[in-house]
Design goal:
With 437 residues, the protein is mostly helical. Helix content is 77%, strand content 0%. The protein has helices spanning 3-15, 28-44, 49-61, 65-93, 95-112, 119-135, 139-149, 154-183, 185-198, 200-206, 234-246, 249-279, 284-309, 314-335, 342-354, 359-370, 374-403, 407-425. Residues 1-7, 9-24, 229-233 and 431-437 have low confidence and may be disordered.
């Protein structure tokens, strides 16, 4: 529902930027970036669902934290594994059909969940359908848009598009929490489904595959770059990207650190922060408001990280981000209480700024090593992010069932963040780098 006014305002803005508009006024790259932002935002509505609905599902069906965590583990696994194949499919068939199909899958999985009565249906709908759909509109898609359409401002655009997911969280979390509390979780699921479906017309009308489709060069480029030849098999293209990355040590360092990033964001905090706060007596609406605030600050933090990535060694940024995240997670168990105390707000502010600030420098490092192959190679790096998130989503839920609280999960995540910082510190500069600015 929230996507309606946003979609209308963007349509008005984009309608003025048609083919006849002088390039000096509005480059079509910014139109593509705006539509991409809204598409990611529409799909991100589902990211606000699991934490809010975990307790209602437990009360209605008797499903444990581990059961809901398993469904989200499947979701995050497919979210990650879909990314490289979706990037390859976009190369083969175009961005518009892949993006439209993905948004439709998200809407279908969320809408059909109102009829579920068994936990396997939760895994099928939230895990499989939504996992594949959101995985097709993930960081591989961001890398595709940033690499094809921008030669200058690539880091900034990457940061803005990455922040779209947090913006979706900002918009949907309070709505989902309020609707779930007053009208039930089924109505909240339908709202998320409608928001994802509402973005499809924008994609069909305004999205383009390459600057050449509009008779343009990439933003900031001085000459046109021919699109890379696309292999006959999209699956082969995806696996070729994996083989290309596997031969470079930096790929494994970045994949390992990004797996820990996924564990400590989507997997742990994104899925389990609200039930962890509930364990300390905090109402769901208050906890959802805090998590939405993380989304507000993440927009600023990720955009600023993109700006920094154009100016500062991205390896140094990653070391700083992961170290700070580890310290904040170490302190979190002592900060939760029935009310949003000042100390809790300190955690929310820091974690919000740091949430996915790791994405722009990680994409730029991939670009420096893999050039035009970045979208597919980064798709595999992002797959590791989601595999890490899947492990944390299921593991933290299981620890909660066994221990009665989330403290051990937070402490383990803190230690892993220090490991991630060490991995990033060992990434060497690319021998032949492609400027990311």
């Amino acid at each position: 529902m929230q996507a309606g006014p946003i979609g209308h305002s963007v349509l008005v803005t984009l309608a003025a930027a048609d083919k006849r508009t002088p390039v000096g006024r509005i480059h079509w790259a910014w139109v593509v970036a705006a539509v991409s932002f809204i598409a990611i935002l529409g799909a991100a509505g589902f990211r606000s669902v699991p934490g809010v609905m975990m307790t209602p599902l437990h009360h209605e069906f008797g499903w444990s934290h581990g059961t809901v965590g398993l469904a989200m583990s499947v979701n995050m696994t497919l979210f990650g594994l879909t990314a490289p194949f979706a990037a390859a499919l976009m190369d083969r068939f175009g961005v518009r059909p892949v993006l439209s199909a993905a948004l439709t899958l998200v809407a279908a999985g969320s809408a059909l969940s109102v009829f579920m009565t068994a936990s396997w249906q939760l895994v099928l709908l939230w895990g499989v359908l939504v996992g594949v759909g959101t995985g097709s509109i993930s960081m591989g898609f961001v890398a595709t848009v940033a690499t094809r359409w921008f030669d200058a401002r690539r880091g900034l655009v990457t940061g803005v598009l990455t922040a779209a997911s947090a913006t979706g969280q900002l918009i949907f979390l309070p709505v989902v929490a309020q609707v779930t509390e007053h009208h039930g979780w089924r109505w909240a699921s339908l709202i998320v489904a409608a928001a994802a479906l509402a973005v499809v017309p924008l994609v069909l009308v305004f999205m383009r595959n390459y600057p050449q489709d509009k008779g343009l060069t990439a933003y900031g480029a001085t000459e046109a770059a021919e699109p890379a030849a696309v292999p006959a098999s999209s699956f082969r293209s995806a696996f070729d990207g994996l083989l290309l990355g596997a031969r470079v040590p930096a790929f494994w360092l970045l994949a390992g650190s990004f797996a820990i990033c996924g564990m400590t964001t989507n997997g742990l905090i994104g899925t389990h922060f609200i039930p962890a706060a509930n364990d300390h007596g905090m109402p769901t609406t208050v906890a959802a408001g805090l998590l939405a605030t993380v989304g507000i600050l993440d927009v600023a933090g990720t955009v600023f990280s993109g700006w920094l990535t154009d100016r500062v060694d991205p390896r140094l940024l990653l070391v700083i981000y992961y170290t700070g995240r580890g310290v904040s997670l170490l302190l979190l168990p002592s900060l939760l209480s029935p009310h949003a105390e000042p100390s809790t707000w300190v955690f929310v502010i820091f974690y919000g700024l740091d949430w996915v600030a790791t994405v722009p420098p990680t994409i730029v490092l991939c670009r420096n090593y893999f050039g035009a192959s970045t979208p597919v190679v980064f798709g595999w790096v992002f797959a590791s992010h989601q595999l890490g998130a899947a492990i944390a989503a299921a593991g933290a839920g299981k620890l909660r069932d066994l221990q009665g609280d989330y403290d051990l999960a937070f402490y383990l995540a803190a230690g892993l963040c220090i490991v991630a910082a060490a991995l990033c510190a060992n990434v060497r500069k690319a021998q032949v780098s492609t400027p990311a600015t």
